[in-house]
């Protein structure tokens, strides 16, 4: 192993595959920000790219790129630690490789179709081949089937490897969570004319993915990261993971009810959705306690400072974005006014970034560290690590700025469109033309640009960090597993 | 490790996690069966049959609930033609498929879900924007087939692009929106003033 040089021989089989997933994830991250910026400009200058690249296309690409890059990040993260966690080589790595290329080709085709065909006639062929026209799960049906097939291969790789090697609490939770992840996607794969039924099952995919299975998945990734980065005790990390699963599924599964207030479903969803979604922030508090406490106990000595920084950004982002910002408008008493306004966009921006983008970025740093031969990434980095610090500051500042701007727009919209104007179209436009709204959308664009600058810096840093570094990584022994070092160092 | 108290033991939390997840999921399945029975089109009071597009639709304040509830009374056939249940379902289905094919949800919202670049379409059929009911269908047909030419931007400059919607698809969309307007959404969007409320203050 050569320290400071980018060399795939520094990686095990799963890690080589993971790196491919991470690279595509970064490309899609760039696409997400690019199309988000175009959509943000269109709020201020509606004639911009009119009938060439309309808001609907930009917005669809913005949200789809986000979901797909996050999934790429999660899959990559699991492949990354599969061999270390199970103690054996990956079962069916070839299938995993093929699945990666199939998925990537499919994503490429879908993006090209979105960009150049955009829409079709109102028939079944359009839904199968072009665009299903359902928010977040716009992918045409052929791609849906492909996604499920690829996810099944991924599941087989993970479950098969753990079965051959050793099982742990982390891998047990992860494997069951992947079953739920694949199963839930199927509930969004049928056509119905009844729009209430459509939205009912659509939320099974969207809510139960994002507010249940994804949260548990990042809980597993987080648990493993804490052992890796800080040498946290497995018993403690796994106990926390079980607590989180209990709280997350205990609140998140029935918390689904907070999406069933206004779609034509019965009134009993008011108390059920209100009560359980009010509990949803609790497991996210547990995560903050967990990571900060662990970091403190280990005196912030970690094998990888940028990754630890992003793990901590994740705990706060998850708590504030998913927990606090979600809770703010989740009760029906408030949601009646805020639902379908920029409040949702505000919550969406902070929660997806805080809960999922951050933990993926942490993993990109873990990956690049190992890829460069398990290089030093503690304190006293070359250039004082200004690039990762500034990119982290700018990305967080940008997203928080967008969140606050959209929240102001959301408040204004709730008051003017709903409370005063009675929710008519003229009420809608009265809110959209109000200076308080347009000013907020201006600041959203500015902070969107700040986010983009942070992203450029992040890419620059990931490409250069650890280059020509000669020091090997800090070695952290796991107290209860003296044989296994948190960071395996084989350098001379 | 045996000395760890129950609240700190891994095994206890593992069991708790399994039980909590299982019980929540079973409850969700049970509630789903009940909800599905109550929201089938025409099978219950909340989501009317597709042939409701032959009727006049309005909302009236229910003072006990303090929210507006749908009122469906009197005949008002769409495009002057009364459709039977099958014909109505076919037309609404064409509309729903067109709604999806044209990616409407990435600008508009429906049932409050979607993007926020253009208005919510849940009660679009009843919006006072249509001024009075006599010209509503003609205006909607013209708008959908040439939205840029018939733009109603209210000073925002936002226009709907021409999406190649055919006349048949436009009729389907109008049927879909009329039917959607009848769904009992528990008073959402709040305090909505219908077209008729403007006509009869």
SS content category of chain A: mainly alpha
Q: Nearest-angstrom radius of gyration of chain B?
A: 22 Å
Biggest interface, chains and residue tallies? A-B, 87 and 89 residues
- CATH third-tier fold name of the largest domain in chain B: Cytochrome Bc1 Complex, Chain D, domain 2
Order of helices and strands of chain B: HEEHEEHHH
Q: What overall form of chain A do the CA principal axes indicate? A: globular
Contiguous low-pLDDT stretches of chain B (5 residues minimum) are none
Low-confidence stretches of chain A: 486-492
| Binned strand content of chain B | 5-15%
Top-tier CATH class of the largest domain in chain B: Mainly Alpha
- Count structural domains of chain B: 2
Oligomer: heterodimer
Calculate Rg of chain A over CA atoms.
22 Å
Structural class of chain B: alpha+beta
| Corresponding CATH architecture of the largest domain in chain B | Orthogonal Bundle
Estimated helix fraction of chain A: over 70%
Strand content of chain A: under 5%
Distance between the termini of chain A: 8 Å
């Amino acid at each position: 192993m050569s320290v400071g040089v980018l060399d795939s021989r520094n990686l095990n089989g799963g890690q080589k595959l993971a790196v491919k997933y991470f690279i595509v994830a970064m490309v899609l991250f760039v696409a997400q920000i690019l199309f988000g910026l175009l959509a943000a400009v269109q709020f201020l200058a509606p004639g911009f790219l009119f009938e060439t690249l309309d808001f609907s296309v930009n917005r669809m690409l913005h949200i789809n790129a986000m979901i797909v890059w996050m999934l790429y990040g999660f899959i990559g993260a699991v492949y990354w630690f599969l061999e270390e966690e199970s103690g054996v080589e990956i079962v069916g790595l070839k299938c995993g490789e093929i699945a990666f290329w199939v998925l990537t080709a499919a994503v490429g085709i879908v993006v090209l179709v979105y960009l150049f065909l955009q829409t079709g006639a109102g028939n079944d062929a359009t839904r199968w081949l072009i665009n299903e026209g359902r928010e977040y799960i716009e992918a045409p049906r052929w791609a849906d089937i492909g996604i499920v097939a690829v996810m099944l291969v991924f599941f087989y790789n993970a479950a098969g490897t753990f079965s051959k090697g050793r099982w742990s609490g982390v891998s047990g939770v992860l494997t069951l969570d992947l079953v739920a992840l694949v199963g839930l996607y199927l509930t969004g794969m049928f056509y119905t004319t009844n729009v209430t039924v459509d939205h009912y099952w659509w939320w099974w995919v969207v809510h139960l993915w994002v507010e249940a299975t994804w949260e548990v998945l990042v809980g597993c990734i987080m648990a493993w990261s804490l052992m890796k980065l800080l040498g946290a005790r497995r018993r403690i990390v796994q106990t926390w993971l079980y607590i989180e699963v209990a709280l997350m599924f205990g609140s998140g599964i029935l918390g689904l009810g907070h999406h069933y207030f206004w779609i034509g479903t019965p009134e009993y969803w008011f108390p059920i959705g209100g009560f359980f979604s009010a509990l949803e922030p609790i497991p996210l508090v547990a995560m903050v306690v967990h990571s900060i406490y662990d970091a403190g106990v280990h005196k912030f000595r970690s094998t990888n400072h940028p990754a630890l920084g992003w793990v901590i950004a994740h705990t706060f982002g998850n708590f504030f974005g998913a927990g606090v910002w979600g809770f703010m408008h989740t009760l029906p008493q408030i949601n009646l006014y805020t639902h379908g306004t920029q409040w949702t966009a505000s919550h969406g921006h902070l929660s997806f970034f805080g809960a999922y983008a951050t933990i993926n970025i942490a993993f990109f740093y873990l990956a690049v560290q190992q890829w460069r031969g398990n290089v030093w990434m503690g304190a006293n980095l070359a250039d004082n690590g200004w690039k990762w610090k500034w990119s982290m500051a700018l990305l967080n500042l940008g997203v928080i700025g967008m969140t606050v701007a959209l929240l102001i727009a959301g408040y204004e919209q709730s008051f003017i469109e709903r409370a005063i104007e009675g929710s008519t179209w003229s009420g809608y436009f009265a809110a959209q033309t109000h200076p308080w709204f347009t000013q907020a959308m201006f600041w959203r664009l500015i902070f969107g640009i700040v986010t983009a600058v942070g992203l450029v810096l992040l890419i620059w840093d990931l490409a250069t960090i650890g280059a020509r570094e000669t020091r090997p990584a800090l070695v952290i022994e796991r107290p209860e597993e003296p044989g296994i070092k948190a960071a395996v160092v084989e350098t001379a | 490790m045996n000395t760890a108290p129950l609240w700190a033991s891994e095994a206890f939390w593992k069991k708790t996690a399994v039980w909590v997840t299982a019980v929540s999921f079973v409850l969700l399945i049970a509630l789903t069966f009940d909800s599905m029975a109550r929201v089938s089109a025409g099978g219950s009071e909340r989501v009317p049959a597709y042939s409701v597009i032959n009727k006049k639709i309005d909302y009236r304040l229910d003072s006990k609930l303090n929210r507006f509830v749908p009122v469906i009374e009197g005949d008002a056939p769409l495009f002057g033609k009364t459709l039977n249940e099958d014909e109505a379902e076919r037309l609404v289905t064409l509309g729903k498929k067109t709604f999806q094919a044209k990616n409407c949800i990435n600008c508009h919202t429906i049932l409050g879900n979607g993007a926020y670049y253009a208005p919510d379409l849940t009660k679009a059929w009843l919006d006072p924007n249509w001024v009075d009911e006599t010209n509503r269908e003609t205006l909607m047909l013209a708008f959908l087939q040439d939205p840029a030419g018939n733009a109603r931007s209210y000073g925002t400059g936002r226009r709907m692009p021409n999406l190649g919607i055919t006349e048949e698809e436009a009729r389907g969309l109008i049927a879909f929106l009329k039917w959607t307007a009848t769904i009992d959404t528990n008073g959402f969007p709040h305090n909505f003033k219908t077209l008729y409320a403007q006509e009869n203050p």
